[in-house]
Design a protein that fits this description.
11 helices, 2 domains, six-stranded parallel β-sheet, binds alpha-L-sorbopyranose, Rossmann fold, alpha/beta, 17 strands
């Protein structure tokens, strides 16, 4: 790898590909970093569409085969911006080809895939490679400030975690059966797509782990028009009379406990009519409360319970001071940041981790921790909201290691031999 350049290859160029491209274009223009991101190659199956995406998003070249991309020796990092069913295959191949990896959330569609990705990332870490998962909301300045205040003890012991992520882009029954509505492509619906964000964010903000859940999920509209070829992402248009089955949840609600003793409620829904991207988290502590709303992402509400009662009340912190996380690189106080800045901050922290040889957060282990909660929620909902414990990452990795060991000790039915086969 060059000592001054970080050559990027990105797989996928829809909504997340556009957000990541914006980050790679801006990160070195606003942050003074030891490595300069070079947008070398964008990859997609359709040569005409990916060529147009390269032009529009600012990539030097385009590629139609991700397997060729991960083997190129003029690329240092693979940025995975594809649907969840290809995250594991692409990220593991890239790590084994010696690349750093940034992988969109959720890490994978199953715990088995996620544990295999963590194992590959651990092997790659020994070779000096890093792997990060794209839970970008950690890097909204107000969220990063919230984490700082909690870690400083400003709200004391956390008693309640209250998290919702509400959208309404599926309320129209004519919205077509996009990939996010198919379990074979996305793994789950609102749960893995937006529920994953509030699971990661609450574990990050509190510094604690979810230890158990009791959940309900629902699919309100079970059949939708099949999409035309060109339907991408969220803004689909119904295109055919043929109907297809929705095989994921439209909404998930669950109770949870954190290992620090807090009680929690979570809601993830694409049917919250009128709520467009309402990620809201409130933490009630023994000394105060903090509350964040993504639809007002430059603000943080803080109730300081240590102030004299007759001065009590919520303060609306405008998170635009140069001393606030990331803000100093942008504009003067009061000039506000947006959704896309969180991706630039993500790229900044990833470049810093690569340059300093440290593990970027959220790591693939952190993302496996989210995957374990997603899986527990699905198991609980399938068992009528039964209380379901969430395994630890290390427990899950031991299971994966044991399963691999057992498989390698099985006699190979073709040759009758046991143990590692020669490749
Ligand atoms: C769609 O629900 C979506 O694009 C998610 O996939 C993203 O992760 C979230 O940031 C915005 O909404």
């Amino acid at each position: 790898m060059s000592t001054t350049q970080l050559r990027i290859g990105m797989v996928g160029y829809a909504f997340m590909g556009a957000a990541h491209s914006q980050a790679w274009r801006t990160v070195n223009r606003f942050f003074d970093l030891p490595l300069r991101a070079r947008m070398e190659v964008v990859c997609g199956r359709d040569s005409v569409k990916v060529a147009a995406a390269a032009e529009r998003l600012g990539w030097a070249e385009y590629e139609t085969d991700w397997r060729r991309l991960v083997e190129r020796d003029d690329v240092d990092l693979i940025d995975v911006c594809t649907p969840g069913d290809s995250h594991a295959e692409i990220a593991i191949a890239a790590l084994e080809a010696g690349k750093h990896v940034l992988c969109e959330k959720p890490l994978a569609n199953t715990v088995a895939e996620a544990t295999a990705m963590v194992a590959a990332a651990r092997r790659a870490q020994a070779r000096g490679q890093v792997a990060m998962c794209g839970f970008n909301y950690r890097r909204v300045p107000a969220a990063a400030l919230m984490r700082h205040l909690v870690a400083e003890g400003r709200i004391g012991t956390i008693r309640h975690v209250r998290a919702v992520y509400l959208q309404d882009w599926l309320v129209d029954p004519q919205f077509p059966l996009a990939w996010r509505l198919r379990a074979d492509r996305a793994g789950s619906g609102a749960l893995g797509d937006i529920g994953a964000h509030i699971i990661d964010l609450t574990q990050y903000l509190t510094g604690q782990r979810i230890t158990g859940v009791a959940a309900l999920t629902e699919t309100f509209i079970r059949e939708r028009p099949l999409p035309a070829e060109d339907v991408q992402g969220l803004s689909g248009t119904a295109s055919t009379d043929a109907m297809g089955e929705v095989t994921v949840d439209d909404a998930a609600v669950f109770l949870a406990r954190f290992d620090g003793g807090a009680l929690a409620t979570f809601e993830a829904s694409r049917f919250a009519t009128g709520r467009k991207n309402a990620l809201r988290i409130e933490l009630n502590g023994s000394e105060g409360t903090l509350a964040f709303d993504l639809e007002r992402l430059n603000e943080l509400e803080f109730y300081d319970g240590t102030r004299p009662a007759d001065e009590g009340g919520f303060t609306r912190i405008l998170v635009t001071e140069p001393t606030h996380p990331y803000v100093g690189a942008w504009w003067p106080p009061g000039h506000l940041l947006g959704y896309e800045h969180s991706f630039t901050h993500q790229a900044r922290d990833l470049i810093e981790a690569i340059a300093t040889g440290t593990t970027p957060q959220p790591s693939f282990e952190d993302a496996l921790g989210v995957q374990l909660v997603l899986d527990a929620v699905q198991r609980s909902a399938a068992a009528g909201a039964a209380w379901t414990d969430v395994p630890t990452v290390e427990h899950s990795m031991r299971d994966e290691h044991n399963a691999l060991t057992e498989r390698s000790e099985q006699p190979d039915l073709a040759t009758g031999s046991t143990g590692g086969t020669e490749h």
